């Protein structure tokens, strides 16, 4: 039976280009693929957009609590060689379990692309916890997402009105309509320096280090 694969990176890590290349490879060989995106991802509306300006229309735009187990969708899965999911962190845990079951019962590979953590440095969603628990393979996509210092980016930091922050609404999609928000990929050292250095934990540890010195 087919597997469910989870491919993650920090933002700007080449996820969408990777999906578009994968779709191209399948379609070049006359294999049909199904592209799924969440309607919560308002960027590009029904399309997925890569940073280099390429795009592809999604075959299924999945609503927040919609089930993947619907007759109209089964007909699509059965004719597909692969199911690809963009921004999988926007799906819920139930939808992830459904994708896993589709891979293993219908025998269609499911390849999901997404983020690991949110701007607070926590696991992005219940959907991401579920996919780490159930995916047959978990892969980090290259190291193309770089921090401003040049190291590999791990975190997806948020700026609100040009200031780094780890408080605020859980989900703000960067679709160009909310100018006060901006996302910045950061390495662990820079995430600590810009965001967590004023936390109680960091202050406590700094005090202890100073004492020992
Ligand atoms: Zn850095």
Please tell me what the overall shape is: elongated
Note the main sheet: 6 strands, parallel
Low-confidence stretches: none
CATH fold call: Rossmann fold
The largest sheet has its strands arranged as: 5-2-6-7-1-8
**Class in CATH?**
Alpha Beta
Number of strands: 11
How big a fraction of the residues is strand?
A: 15-25%
Ligands: zinc ion
Distance between the termini: 58 Å
Mean pLDDT: 93
Cα-atom Rg, whole angstroms? Answer: 19 Å
In N-to-C order, the SSE pattern is EHEEEEHEHEHEEEEHH
Structural class: alpha/beta
Distinct helical segment count? 6
Helix content: 25-40%
Find the CATH superfamily. P-loop containing nucleotide triphosphate hydrolases
Q: Examine the secondary-structure arrangement and name the CATH architecture.
A: 3-Layer(aba) Sandwich
How many structurally independent domains?
1
Protein model, in words:
This protein is 31% helix and 23% strand. It is an alpha/beta fold and 213 residues long. The chain has a single domain (4-212), classed as Rossmann fold. The strands form 3 sheets. A 6-stranded parallel sheet has the order 5-2-6-7-1-8, with helices on both faces. Strands 10-9-11 form a 3-stranded antiparallel sheet. Strand 6, helix 3 and strand 7 (110-114) form a beta-alpha-beta unit. Helix 3 (93-106) packs parallel to helix 4. The longest helix is centred in the N-terminal third of the chain and has 14 residues, at 15-28. The protein binds zinc ion (ZN). Zinc ion (ZN) binds next to helix 5.
